[in-house]
Amino acid sequence: MLPAIDPWFSAFVAADVAWCTYLPTRRLAEVRARRLALLLRASAQRSPLYRRILRGRNPDTVRLEELPIVSKAELMHSFERWVGDGEIRIRELREFTAERDLIAEPFLGRYTVWESSGSGGGEPGIYVQDAAAMAVYDALEAVRRIALRPGARLIDPFWLSERIVFLGATSGHFASAVSFERIRRLNPQLAARLRSVSILQSLNKQIAELDDFQPTVVATYPSVAVLLAEECDAGRLSIAPQEIWTGGETLTVNMRALIEKAFKCPVVNSYGASEFLTLASQCRYGALHLNSDWAIVESVDEDGRPVPSGTQGASVLLTNLANHVQPLIRYDLTDSVTLHSGSCACGSSLPVIEIQGRGDDTLHLVGDSDQPVRVVPLAVATVLEEEAGLFDFQVVQRGPRDVALHTGLLGEAAAAALTQAKAALGAYLGRQGAQNVQIHCYGGAPAKLGTSGKMRRVLGMPCKNG
Ligand SMILES: [Zn+2]
Questions:
Q1: Å from CA of 169 to ligand 1 middle
Q2: Disulfide engineering: 129 pairs with which of 133, 300, 308, 361, CB 3.0-4.6 Å?
């Protein structure tokens, strides 16, 4: 079955997104206020949880700051009271996301569904989008992604001569994997030119798949792109992509330079979350612009108070103006960002945003034949979450063949979870040619904070790409 889509509405939204990019700030604020009122009205009508929260308040006049800050754990706990469709049952959703064959299939015939990883703490979230929300995500992605090769798009506007590879966690219903599979299903003529490659395979297998496919576009995480750049520099990977798309983690200036130098092609970065697919898109001057026509982002301190522009906040509150099925209103994203006022040379009126604190490390281990083995943080997280069901963890590299696996769990729960997690991580490292790496397990251990003060899940030893 094809994913849920409404072509007429999609065309309308795409035109609106193009129009909003250069709207004066004041007009943009009016668009946002109108959309917020619509969201609040829909939430009060459809979501029992928000009916209670919004009781006695006028959706047209209530100030966003008056509404409570909500967390993933609280919302997931009252999932069926939260969502705005009584037919959406959490048990059926969990069964749905447990089936790999159903990735990008419509749930209940009308919803696109994905789950998040456990980053930010706790159990994964599940996010349900209708055709209207997907049309917004599609339009932001299509209209606000800069054309790195305008000439190529003029000749081939539908990307039919490209070969696009997605390298990521392909085995679960994650937002990136669902999105990629959804594009494949919606564009049968493009399907043979899209390939997804699992980063849980050994690096040699990933390289063999890439060498075979010869992608012109590589879409992946910054840490994975760095790993590939190093393989390219070492002469073990022979691909010549024309552009590289990254997202999902912080892309530092050094990482970008290393990737662009190795592949001799530009990198375009974006910032998104399972809760809002494309929150910010990079402009031609390298700045990330917040898609503030469809998302309200509040950067706040530890006590939930707004921080001034130009200052890094302790957390981020997201209000998703596109999704009326599963209202996300002042939702704590647990990221850390800096919002900037002032204009950008590109002419966009959308605010510039800098992302901090999504900087887990790549592990630099030494394998069974003394060869270097690099393990990207996404692979560690996916193995522990997907294969061992462990969400509360921190992996700390202590030596070339020594990692510590911590969990906040206690007693028997910790022992059982750590046994399973150690086996899964050990088997994965074995597949990477690093069977000899010692994994030491600790229950009830307090997590180490990163430099931004946020919890990091994978900490490596200091290295050149930090
Ligand atoms: Zn710009």
A1: 30
A2: 133
- Residues 45, 185 share a domain: yes
**31: which 2 tokens?**
């668009």
As a whole number, mean pLDDT of residues 218-233 equals 94
Structural domain harbouring 36: 7-356
Are the CB atoms for 292 and 250 separated by under 8 Å? no
Domain annotation covers residue 422: yes
Rounded Cα gap, residues 89 and 303, in angstroms: 33
How many Å lie between the centroid of ligand 1 and the Cα of residue 304? 28
Nearby residues of 339 by Cβ (< 8 Å), 6 or more positions away: 290, 297, 299, 309, 310, 351, 352, 353
pTM: 0.87
Residue 466 lies in a domain: no
Q: Are 293 and 31 in contact (CB under 8 A)?
A: yes
Task: Please name the helix (run of DSSP H) or strand (run of DSSP E) that holds residue 370, with its range, or none.
Answer: none
Task: Collect residues with CB below 5 Å from ion ligand 1.
Answer: 283, 285, 287, 344, 346, 348
Last residue of a domain, one of 328, 356, 384: 356
